[in-house]
Automatic annotation (TrEMBL):
Protein's name according to its UniProt entry: Fatty-acyl-CoA synthetase
One of the GO biological process terms: fatty acid metabolic process
Family, similarity comment: Belongs to the ATP-dependent AMP-binding enzyme family.
Nucleotide-binding among keywords: no
GO molecular function: ligase activity
Residue intervals of the AMP-dependent synthetase/ligase domain: 17-402
The organism's place on the tree of life at top rank: Bacteria
Matching Pfam families: AMP-binding, AMP-binding_C
Domain called AMP-binding enzyme C-terminal: residue spans: 450-525
Keywords: Fatty acid metabolism, Ligase, Lipid metabolism
Keyword Ligase among UniProt keywords: yes
CDD domains per record: ttLC_FACS_AlkK_like
Organism of origin: Acinetobacter rudis CIP 110305
């Protein structure tokens, strides 16, 4: 016998309808490509989304057609997202920091029919346009600009297009399992592969990310997603924000620490989300500018391991609670979030901190396990000590990659993340490393993350990465690549001495390489593959 309750499909359009109906005047503030600010709200975002849906309606697209976006976090981009997915097309967000060849590969692979881009990317679009034969319309997300029209003769302008449209549009109702958006993996995990999210997976993911034990979002928040909308849909924040009706501050293209401090202080941001390199820049800038970030209550750090020193600085200097989260493109991305339980309140500060530094536990909707092999199904002990291949399953986890005919799952239906981790009995996850970043020295594993955490707590180092270098006797040995703080005179010997008594002697890196810059990829993560290519043979040379 079936239950007698209403059955409404979980559609992305219902999120923007909700935000408009109940939170119409809540501010959506946005920094434009030219640095100017736009003050909008959920009423205007929703109305413009409907106007742009009318524009798309004239393009004779078919349900499921891909509309690509190459844009920063701003209000026009947000409106276009709701218009695209709400109309039944697929919003394909693209990382503009990729090389032109990678961009054209991804756009052709996805069969994008329309490309929407920020003014910043006019040069890029001009360069790759001829390699995109399937694209029927190019839309610049801005007001009319004669210079841009000269560079790209057939270009359409977003503001001109929506200006002529009615704000009346009835969002179509369809199967919640239809595709809503497409993100390609960032390449941290190998060759870019498309992950095709559905309306259902997106709405369920939004419910989970708002919960008190995840990002704890509410209508009282003023949220700043620093994580770009092309990095796993800004971790779903544009959807969760509409679900709870909180304020949004969209930081545009300038993600340096000083610009972010300015936005947080001026617009009283309560909660912001980003990768560790972003927060490092913010902490440096806040200290230089003398800001105490008074409005910032919480910040979420994810995408890469959070250095312990960062949690402490946010807490002690800024009274800001840092929430460490783990996820990946394939997991929408929410896989685990670190919030403590009632039983942890009795712990002292040191034990609380050590628990908080791990990646947290899964919210309802996903399950985690660790196994002995990548494709294996022998589950390992949840004792907080045994490390194994981390696997995940749940409502918003990929089952197969875009345009792939093979399943991406193990025989018994789990997705192998490529991470090596421990789990404890409460499900608290600790990522030891990515399987390919682990260092195998004389048959023993060394975690690069653990060595990085120690180095990054050294006050004279600004940015660090540990990689495996080939060693004639031990196969691999860890080496530390480090960027010093400005004016620092610290020596390699001092850094290596800093490791003593913090870690087993044989795990201390063999060498320190000081560099001016550490390569960072499009989503703000350190490019270890590049570092391995540059320094992987350094121990053979000495
Ligand atoms: P991406 O799909 O590019 O976001 O990359 C996902 C990968 O980033 C994961 O498989 C992890 O290796 C890494 N990652 C994400 N969050 C964390 C975290 N909090 N700590 C350590 N590694 C992380």
């Amino acid at each position: 016998m079936k239950g007698n309750m209403m059955c409404q499909p979980l559609l992305i359009s219902s999120l923007i309808e909700h935000a408009e109906r109940y939170h119409a005047d809540t501010a959506v503030i946005s920094k434009n490509s030219d640095g100017t600010m736009t003050q909008s709200n959920w009423r205007e975002v929703a109305a413009n989304a409907r106007r742009f849906a009318n524009v798309l309606d004239h393009f004779q697209l078919t349900q499921g057609d891909r509309v690509a976006t190459l844009a920063w976090n701003n209000h026009r981009h947000l409106e276009s997202w709701y218009a695209i997915s709400g109309s039944g097309y697929v919003c394909h967000t693209i990382n503009p920091r990729l090389f032109p060849e990678q961009l054209t590969f991804i756009m052709n692979n996805a069969h994008d029919k329309v490309v929407i881009f920020d003014k910043t990317f006019v040069g890029l679009i001009s360069e790759i346009k001829s390699a995109l034969p399937r694209v029927e319309h190019f839309i610049c997300l801005d007001a009319y600009d004669a210079e841009i029209e000269k560079a790209l003769p057939d270009v359409l302008f977003y503001d001109l297009l929506i200006e002529k449209q009615s704000d009346q549009f009835i969002w179509p109702e369809f199967d919640e399992n239809l595709a809503s958006s497409l993100c390609y993996t960032s390449g941290t995990t190998g060759h870019p592969k498309g992950v095709l999210y559905s309306h259902r997976s997106t709405v369920l993911h939004s419910y989970a990310s708002c919960l008190p034990d995840t990002f704890n979002l509410s209508a009282k928040d003023n949220l700043m997603p620093v994580v770009p909308m092309f990095h796993v849909n800004a971790w779903g924040i544009p959807y969760s924000a509409a679900m709870v009706g909180c304020g949004l501050v969209l930081p545009g293209p300038m993600l340096d620490g000083a610009s972010l401090v300015e936005l947080i202080d001026r617009y009283k941001v309560t909660n912001a989300l980003g990768v560790p390199t972003i927060w490092q820049g913010l902490l440096n800038a806040a200290a230089n500018l003398g800001s105490t970030l008074p409005s910032l209550i919480r910040n979420v750090v994810g995408g890469a391991a959070c250095p312990p020193a960062m949690v402490l600085t946010f807490k002690e200097r800024y009274q800001c609670e840092t929430i460490h989260a783990w996820g990946m493109t394939e997991t929408s991305p929410l896989g685990a979030v670190n919030q403590l339980k009632a039983k942890h309140t009795v712990l002292d500060d040191t034990d609380k901190l050590s628990l908080r530094l791990a990646q947290g536990r899964p919210p309802f909707g996903v399950q985690l396990r660790i196994c002995d092999q990548e494709k294996g199904i022998n589950e390992l002990a949840r004792d907080g000590l045994t490390a194994g291949h981390l696997q995940i399953k749940g409502h918003w986890i990929v089952s197969h990659y875009f345009a792939a005919d093979q399943s991406a799952l193990t025989q018994d239906g789990w997705f192998d993340t490529g991470d090596i981790a421990t789990l404890d009995q409460d499900g608290y996850l600790k990522i030891c490393d990515r399987s390919k970043d682990l260092i195998k020295s004389g048959g023993e594993w060394i975690s690069s993350v653990e060595l990085e955490n120690i180095a990054s707590s050294h006050p004279e180092l600004e940015m660090v990465a540990v990689i495996a270098a080939i060693h004639p006797r031990w196969d691999e040995r860890p080496i530390l690549i480090a960027k010093k703080q400005a004016q620092s005179q610290v020596t390699a010997h001092e850094i290596l001495t800093y490791y003593v008594n913090k870690i087993a002697k044989w795990q201390i890196p063999d060498q320190v390489v000081f560099v001016d810059t550490i390569p960072v990829g499009g989503t703000g993560k350190i490019l270890k593959k590049e570092l391995r290519e540059m320094y992987g043979s350094i121990l053979l040379e000495s």
